[in-house]
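Exercise 7. Predict the joint structure of the components listed below.
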Amino acid sequence: MSLWQHFQSQPITWLVVTLVVFLLASWLNSRAGKTPFLHPVLLSLSLIILLLYLTNTDYPTYMQGGQYLHLLLGPAVVALAVPLYDHLATVRRMLVPLLLGSVSGALVAAVSAILLAAWMGLDRALLMTVAPKSVTSPIAIAIAEKIGGFPSLAAGLVLITGAMGCLIAPLVYRLLRIEDPAVKGFVLGVGAHAMGTAFAFEYGMIAGAFGGLAMAMTGTFTAFMLPVLTSLIGV
Amino acid sequence: MIQGFLILLLCQLLGELLVWMLSVPVPGSVVGMVVLFFALIGYGKVPDSLRLSSEGILKILPLLLVPAGVGLMKHFGVISEYWGALLLSLFVSTLITMLVVALLLRKFISGEESK
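Solution:
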């Protein structure tokens, strides 16, 4: 028992657990045909939470190891500038429709989520948590931290939104008779961020590239827009 | 690769500094991304070391999200009370968003980029 208590208090233990569980979850996900409902991140965090419960370990103890990975989210967000720059030619050529699509998408996503959640009686901290739900997780975590939501709950809601978006998108295409792969990819990137982008590659490289663009533009715009918006509509 | 990683960190640091100076509630890392994006436009290409580091870190991005995600365990009370309202707002909002964006884009880029 005291041996376990010794290991439990070592940050390295939880780093190793996180990596092992993540590899296991990725393996399980690819065995399950890469379905977004068994997303490696969703799967790993469920398994780790279960493990922490079984070993009676609290979150702060886990985070003594986990913080080293969490710290890298900042530079990872900065790194999103590189793929965005790689698509500069496309951005320049189609600046107006792309801006229009990502700006209106970011606005509709945040406003509709806030209004729906407020209508269903959720309090302010929860509204600030659902607001960045269509934004890629590293940016959503940073936004929720900034505007007074719960970052980890926001991360979870983002993942659920991503899975839902992959389910909703084909319905939207059918309903509106969308054939253009660029539009398909962009819709997925705006509504379902990174998970949508991964799903968009199923429709080809163009769809995937537009998904990535949409994700980066929507995330950036939402980060600048949400603080202003929330003070504007007084929540 | 170390230079590339340093560039990412310096951009984030600059972002945090700008956020503090302008006292705007925008995440510093997002400002850092915008700074790097315009720096790349100015420089005209992506330095090899930066490409190596940024592609490396983006490849392991899902792993980096796990520790924050595990923090969900702190919110089980809220989730068990409001899960219906949370899921419904996510679903309806995502559906509306995708419909609006698809309608807008079909008007503006259909046919132009599909080839």
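Discussion. Chain A is about 80% helix and 0% strand.
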